[in-house]
Amino acid sequence: MFDLILRRANLPDGRKAQDIAIRDGKIAEIAPNIDATAQEEIDATGRLASPPFVDPHFHMDATLSLGLPRMNRSGTLLEGIALWGELRPTLTIDALVSRALRYCDLAVTQGLLAIRTHVDTSDPKLTTVQAMLEVQQKVKPYIDLQLVAFPQDGYFRAPEGVQSLTRALDMGVNIVGGIPHFERTMAEGQASVEALCRLAAERGLPVDMHCDETDDPQSRHVETLAQQTIRHGLQGRVAGSHLTSMHSMDNYYVSKLIPLIAESQMNVIPNPLINIMLQGRHDSYPKRRGMTRVPELMAAGINVSFGHDCVMDPWYAMGSGDMLEVGHMAIHSAQMGSLEDKTKIFNALTINSAKTMGLENYGLAPGCNADLILLQARDPAEALRLKATKLLVIKSGKIIARTAPRIGSLFLDGRPSDIDPAIGFAPDY
């Protein structure tokens, strides 16, 4: 007797009509036609079952603050930073917690059960840190929330940046962040990478830096980050987020840089929605698109995962909490349109991101946590094309969210009455 059996589900690796049996919060068995009973059985009818979505790069302290203190008129990264600087002194723990919990409610319905959020440490009051630590505890039963100490105004540039980041770590934030391209000079940016990697090594902590989020091809702090990763023995524990300057670098330099990143075993986190929106702002035409070199990084064996980054905040007036929207944009901006490419993109939203965050017992295999989602699609390509509805969200073997399938009603003589966008439109591959 199992607690739950999900029958006839397709899996992201191409297996079809698989039964997934769950007992005591773990996946017990995956096979066709499991001959057993369960307290509850659900027929997936050939829909796609997947591990939950994972967002390895987000700003939960800013989420849902759109319009405070006013709208970002230029839509630029720098005006967003300025607006956040104006809003920050007015922030309260209650307001931060309330907005974050509302976002987490949305995230769960979208099948998003693990998030890494960067928490601004530039204000010595550390109101944001206190609030996000509280949120982390509140959502612990259903979201794995990781916190990064992020010196938004610069580790050296902010008046008390060094001391504030250290205090945030002492309070319980356990990932070291940075933003070297926002320091006053390239030299100070390099020095910040060196200091922060040394700090992480001394404390035994991971590193996740906003790195080279600019169109400037001379912004090459990722090179220092990779070198410092190797120097301090941090391989596999470091993430470079954004890396948009790589979009503008010359090919010869990149041909040297990518092997260095691969040697360092760095994780790379592009943020397609935000990168495509904020980069190229100094260009007329041709206009650069700004996202880093995803296909080339993947081809080099580097672990690439995608972040949502922002949802309705001073930097980005859109966003939905749906990681399939992120992947949908990645397909277009990286020009990765083949079936194989789409599977890679889907994996970047799930297993690759789980690797970046170091999640344990994640996946679809016996012994893994029974955390999974059922999508209104038959495979990863269709899920990304449709930004598919998350029909079921399961945490530790329990259904925690359910959404009705998207079905259109048609009132035309001689035509079908119900239209399911995931049935009958795509060819058999």
Low-confidence stretches: none
Mean of pLDDT: 97
CATH level-3 fold name of the largest domain: TIM Barrel
Number of helices: 13
Beta-strand content bin: 15-25%
**Rg over C-alpha atoms, rounded to the nearest angstrom:** 22 Å
Strands, total number: 17
Question: Any overview of this molecule?
Answer:
- With 429 residues, the chain is an alpha/beta fold.
- The chain folds into 2 domains: 2-51 and 363-419, Urease, subunit C, domain 1 (Roll); 53-357, Metal-dependent hydrolases (TIM Barrel).
- It is 34% helix and 20% strand.
- It has helices spanning 77-87, 93-109, 127-139, 161-171, 186-203, 221-231, 251-264, 272-278, 294-299, 323-333, 339-349, 351-357, 380-386, and strands at residues 2-9, 18-23, 26-31, 38-43, 48-50, 53-58, 112-120, 144-150, 176-178, 207-211, 238-242, 267-269, 372-375, 390-395, 398-402, 408-409, 418-419.
- The protein has a 4-stranded mixed sheet with strand order 3-2-1-4, with no helix packed on it.
- α6 links the parallel β10 (207-211) and β11 (238-242).
- The protein is globular, with a radius of gyration of 22 Å.
- The model has no long low-confidence stretch (mean pLDDT 97).
